[in-house]
């Protein structure tokens, strides 16, 4: 059975959440010491996977970071986009401490349709075994490949920033990696003239399909689905970097464009993003791995490349951040 049954996905169709309210957000990275002495102490080793994103980190426990260290973690995640921490005790420190640490980065998103943990709606549970394959049902069983690039819940008015994902069970034979890409480098690869065409454009991100999918299979819809308009190119509040902010999972149309125009532009951007193997990485899991990424400047995809006879069990904590903007304050 599962190693951590406490975190098994819980679906209660009676569970309801009120609409989300706007909140003021100051990114913890703005307070961080650029040298990151509380995070990257002399015992820490780092290994960059790609010049554009992805750093493996060993020798420090997220659970033991001071507030200064947690601020530095936000900055490091913004700079490197994806951080892969090895040999963490995070999965064993209990739900209250896990939530407390994640809340340092903002109010934790409570997912409207996914499995959560009973009495702890802050946890978004990712679970697959021989009897449960929700991902395949959601993405479609009749597909040639199962890559599905997205930025988590980008339909929210205040989508997530610094995000935590910790593994509990994984296939013994390997597989089940997460693909990540840099939306900053994806933007930088475009010509200056094309970048100019994207400036000022806004796109609609929608939760409707996700909610309808859950309803059809008698799953929960804890909050009515929302649609939000976000800039196609957003600016990170700490680094000032510009990043594409469209994804095939939730972006539906360009505001002010006719249908064919919107489809043409979005399909070009999705194609550009998905083919960019030179600004993508694979995050590989080991027992004790915690991946921390910045949802504002990345997209990611699950890799369901392992036999359903194996169990994969992980949990995400998803603090929300500022409304996306194309300006730096």
Topology:
Blueprint: E1 45-48, E2 55-58, H1 67-80, E3 82-85, H2 95-103, E4 124-128, H3 134-139, E5 162-169, E6 178-182, H4 183-188, H5 192-198, E7 202-206, H6 208-216, E8 227-231, E9 233-235, E10 242-244, E11 251-254, H7 259-274, E12 280-283, E13 290-294, E14 298-302, E15 312-317
Parallel strand pairs: 2-3
Antiparallel strand pairs: 1-2, 3-13, 4-15, 5-13, 5-15, 6-12, 6-14, 7-8, 7-11, 9-10
Q: Which runs of at least 5 residues are low in confidence (pLDDT < 50)?
A: none
Mean of the pLDDT scores?
96
* Structural Rg: 19 Å
Number of helices: 7
Count of DSSP strands: 15
Percentage of residues in helical conformation: 10-25%
Proportion of residues in β-strands:
15-25%
Spatial order of the strands in the main sheet? 1-2-3-13-5-15-4
Largest sheet: 7 strands, mixed
Give me the secondary-structure category: alpha+beta
H-E string: EEHEHEHEEHHEHEEEEHEEEE
Amino- and carboxy-terminal Cα gap: 50 Å
Shape: globular
Model description:
The chain has 329 residues and is α+β, with helices and mostly antiparallel strands. Helix content is 20%, strand content 21%. It has seven helices and 15 strands. The chain has a seven-stranded mixed sheet. A three-stranded antiparallel sheet has the order 12-6-14. α1 links the parallel β2 and β3. The longest helix has 16 residues. It is globular and about 50 Å long. The termini are far apart.
